[in-house]
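User: Sequence in, structure out. Go.
Assistant: Echoing your sequence, followed by the structure tokens.
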Amino acid sequence: MNTHDQTAVNLALFEPDIPQNAGNLFRTAACFDIPVHVIEPCGFALSDSKMRRAGMDYMAHVVLHRHQNWQRFQMERGNGRLILLTTRCESRLQDFSFARGDTLLLGRESAGVPEDVHNAADARVILPMKAGVRSMNVAVAGGIVLFEALRQLQALPG
């Protein structure tokens, strides 16, 4: 399902494995009115009580697209650019220009994304962090990048 023509950006979760993080990202997407694409398999049932608790009553406001696997996501996602949030790149968030129809891809909390998914991204973005720290929580990183993309595109709600 192509949602790129209807929204500024999309959020995609690659095989998420922590329900609380997925729930927080769903809640963030609901507040920004952004569709969420979940690339399965997940490390939990999407009906998991921890995910529902983190998403609270915002789940009714989430436009959720489930994709059976990475290949199905690639076939169904549409034509917008795929922007991977990663610690393995040189493109810093503050130097990156987002475009309408971009899909922001977040990897698994435990392992990121495999090499073929990393290579399939049209662009890769890293958040600036203090030297010596490994990474941010995926839900926090997703919220920061989502806000910056919407700010650049002048698509923040309200």
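User: And one key feature?
Assistant: The domain at 9-152 is CATH 3.40.1280.10 (Alpha/beta knot).
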